[in-house]
Amino acid sequence: MQYWVKYGYQARHFSHGSPKWTPSWRSCLSLPQHDLKARALALHRHKQRQTPPQQMNTMEHADMTPHQETPIALKHRERKAGAIGDNLKALRKEKGLTIAAVASASGISAASVSRIENGRISPTFEAIVNLAKGLKVDVSELFYHTEDTSFRGWLALTRAQEGDVIETPNYRYRPLCNNVASKEYMVLETTVLNRSLEEFGGLQKHSGQEQIIVTSGEVTVWTELYDPILLRVGDSLAFDSTLGHAITYNGDTPATMTWVCSAYA
């Protein structure tokens, strides 16, 4: 009998009664023979999983090219990556909820929820957070299907120019290493789309914490308690997301930022 071990996204198996480890999936690193913890983990998971784990699309080995996709990567593409409306509908159906139930739990009108699902309107980040709260999922679930990585040793990789772009009324996002359910934060490569507070549509607030680092151009951060703050390339600002806030760009070219925010609604 063989037992599969999911150990830091490296797969191993060993024969019953034998402590000898042998490679079983791609170019995985060897585990020490005396690793009793890994052996115990294998025994514990034997009854639940007797097939080798498959790797997520952004959790690649270093020798995988950007054009290679694992079966699970292809499965994820069935839920259209980056399409928040499609992800919202899929999550709602998975939980057996009606549009009215999601609307009531998230504080967003049923008509708006329906329009978001059908791609007729694009939700603001504030609305995305409220929808995640109503669905009782991580905010990241609405950006991309995520996998549970509650065990130790996981890693996630997004290569340059990879990943799906998501556009909302105020920002254009490219989530980085986003399909990891146990992460407590999200990192978004962000383009600021509005030049004025009027274009932005007013201050927004939601649960969580945020930090931004300007990578090109200049931005102005507007808040309900402080004077507007000008940030240039290399400047960083962190704030409580429950503080009403908005970010606009200065000049003729939209600015870009690295945006770190809470993954939980």
In brief:
This protein is α+β, with helices and mostly antiparallel strands. It has eight helices and twelve strands.
CATH class of the largest domain: Mainly Beta
Total individual domains: 3
Name of the CATH superfamily of the largest domain:
Jelly Rolls
* Beta-strand content estimate: 15-25%
The general outline is globular
pLDDT < 50 runs, ≥5 residues: 1-34, 46-82
- Tell how many strands the DSSP assignment holds: 12
Task: Please characterize this protein's 3D structure.
By secondary structure, this protein is an alpha+beta fold. The protein has three domains: 2-45, no CATH class; 76-143, 434 Repressor (Amino-terminal Domain), CATH 1.10.260; 166-262, Sandwich (Jelly Rolls), CATH 2.60.120.10. Helix content is 24%, strand content 25%. It has helices at residues 36-45, 71-78, 84-94, 99-106, 110-117, 125-135, 140-143, 197-200; strands at 2-7, 10-15, 22-23, 166-167, 171-176, 185-192, 209-216, 218-223, 229-231, 236-240, 245-250, 256-262. The strands form three sheets. It has a six-stranded antiparallel beta sheet, with no helix packed on it. A three-stranded antiparallel beta sheet has the order 1-2-3. A hairpin with a 5-residue loop joins strand 8 (218-223) and strand 9 (229-231). Helix 4 (99-106) crosses helix 5 (110-117) and helix 4 crosses helix 6. It starts with a strand and ends with a strand.
